[in-house]
From TrEMBL:
Keyword RNA-binding: no
Pfam families for the chain: BPD_transp_2
UniProt GO molecular function: branched-chain amino acid transmembrane transporter activity
Subcellular localization(s) per the UniProt record: Cell membrane
Name the record gives this protein: Branched-chain amino acid ABC transporter permease
Superkingdom of the organism of origin: Bacteria
Organism listed in the record: Streptomyces coelicoflavus
Entry membrane topology: Multi-pass membrane protein
Gene Ontology cellular component list: plasma membrane
Amino acid sequence: MTTQTTAPKNTGAPAAGDASGLIGIPAHIGRALATGGGVLTVVSTFLAWTWTAEFPGDLTVYGYPGGLQVLVLVAGALTALIGLASYGVKGLRWLVPAGADAALRFAALAAFATAWYTVIAISAQLGGLVNLEPGGYIAAAVTLIALLGSLALPVERPEPDPFDPDDTGWERFKHTSAHNWQIVKAAFASGSPRPVRALPSYAEILIIVAVLAAGLFVFTYGIGTEYDELFVGFLITAGFGFAALNKSGLIAQASEITARHQNITVCGAFIAAACFPFTQSDDQYATIGVYILIFATVALGLNIVVGLAGLLDLGYVAFLGVGAYAASMVSGSPSSPFDLHLPFWGAVLVGAAASLVFGVLIGAPTLRLRGDYLAIVTLGFGEIFRITANNLDGTSGPDITNGSNGISSIPDLKVLGFDLGIAHEFGGFTIGRFANYFFLMLVITAVVVLVFRRSGDSRIGRAWVAIREDETAALAMGINGFRVKLIAFAVGASLAGLAGTVQAHVTYTVTPEQYLFAGTTPPNSAFLLAAVVLGGMGTIAGPLIGASLLFLIPNKLQFLDDYQLFAFGLALVLLMRFRPEGLIANRRRKLEFHEEDEAPAVLSKTGA
């Protein structure tokens, strides 16, 4: 008997487990295109991209990149270096401890997005593609080639789920689309980086210094961008560039080294921050710096309440206002109802103590609530504070806060005879008013970080984490839930009041409208909560980085006018969709959102 067999039809689709790329170019050719495209991208930045200097940055000069060309140069150089590292070039393999392919895709995407954004911006602003010089066309072409080459690199395709024979056409389309999306995710995923070999202590400290210096340079460049197009390009390059370094494994290895020297890293970070005013030629950007520190300090205080204790507080900005009002009333302002002018330390203690008292008064009757009910009560407290401050104007109520006009003409602080309101000469540098307050807030931020670290590592900190994870189980284990939550509420409130003391003197005026639940500019309760969630709940660096981004980006995106909040909200939605654990996530929260990751052998008290 003869048995006939029919070979399965080849549909042309890559089989499961196939390591072909996303596009049909051989892998060796794609790698060459990506690497060569990175090199040519660097070369293109030394050509003129437009004929007129009307576009910001003066992109008309040959041999000298300027403006957005510098960002394309950085992205192109990163693409070329990672591409060479993928060939195993000696001296560059340390760049890709977790593999090169995913990092190369993100680096090529950074160069492509920045270059094409620049070309489109030139065409839109000057009136068409005719305003481009050959350098602009070359940059657009070579970055596209590099991106296509990187997409041709091999991808380990996941196994597809089988079709249900009873599925409709629409259900089959959704099934296929979901599988294709899993393939795209696999293309931009990387493996685990190899462990960092033991280095001499001085070498690891030098690496930490280099990382902090790079962070200071990037922050200084971003905050000093002089026009809107350059800042948007900076966001594109920095975002995809950081993703490339993260996928290469360098970020993980740097984190491993800094974890070995936590105290040195924290001290180095504050020293790097203290160097920021010395990188500025005037006081303009020190203004943004001091407001970022105020916002970040308040966010770190909220992180105790939300990140450690798991209490959703939607009216936290009211504690900042309580501290600011209390300090302004005892600092010698002519608008104050009290004829009292306390020194700096007295004002700080009054502001922190007032917020502490209000935290206890509000927390005592409400912290027996949980979840959404507690959130609604704290939201009500925030609005009650603002309305009450508006009504204490001598007409609707006692004349205490001067109503909507607020407490004005608040004098500058004097610390040990050092007047923070005037410029001072230091080592040939002129330190202006806002730089003085920047240094003061840096000290206060250091105090808040110390409180957060010590409390998180203490018995009360472990109780907070237990309450956050499962309050019923914590109560069953003998933890006094009400007492523990009240301490968290009181500590968080006092830290916000501490920052409010400085804010009152920096702004000269305290008004009720500064302390809204939501608004276009921070600090407000919505932005504070977003800073904690965006940065990473339960960590120290997370809220500091989240607050910096949430203050700096809206400040720089004012050209969007009415679309500012829309763009900002869209960015938050995308970030929470693709990285719900936050930018700086602890291991516990990362495992909550990425169950496929391997569990760490050891978790600390806060899961960090």
